[in-house]
Amino acid sequence: MKFSELVITPTTVPGWSVKACVGLFCIGLLALYLPLGVLGLGLLIYIGLILRVTVQPESYIRPDETVYAPVDGRIISVDERSDGTKTVILQPDLFDSHLHYAPVAGQLEDITWVDGSFNFKALDGVTNDLRVRREITWRTKKGHRVEMTQFGDRWCRLIQCFLREGRQTIVSDPAGLALFRGVVMVTFITSAPLNIVPGQRCLAAQTQLGQAL
Known about the structure:
- This protein is an alpha+beta fold.
- Helices cover about 20% and strands about 30% of the residues.
- It has two domains: about 35 residues; about 150 residues, Glucose Permease (Domain IIA) (Distorted Sandwich).
- The chain is built from two helices and 13 strands, in the order ααβββββββββββββ.
């Protein structure tokens, strides 16, 4: 038996050209969609990571007038006005949980969606009135007003609120989310100076921002 008789050349296989074309087509699809599948799986894992629950319900009651950080991340800026109004801006890091929690214990008084533009970077120095945002307002037992604002930007276009007006909340209650790395602003009035600084690491429902007085 000759060696050539052991080797099957494509021309001797019926329909070899069709099989070759289908094979190349399958290889092309695999080369195209396998990376997309891997990318999709990676995105799914990342979404699961940034939406993980980091705050567990507390078995004890925290002080009603204490305002806490509503999100894991970093404090971007702290503004203390002469009239006692304090404004703290926070943003989660890339791998922090992007869930928001109630910053204070009290009754949810108002939820307002303000139409605006998403065409800003998260930390652009533009007037807040130009940005799309959701303003969520609490009233504490002593009547103090605490507001949390969720801002949208070019990358953060999914902003949700899990709460309803009139509901009583505690600090560990999930309040909403903002994907991806949405900026959150907390505003309240207090005569006491704040013991937080820009760049400081904060943990949701654990880092105290101040007292509503």
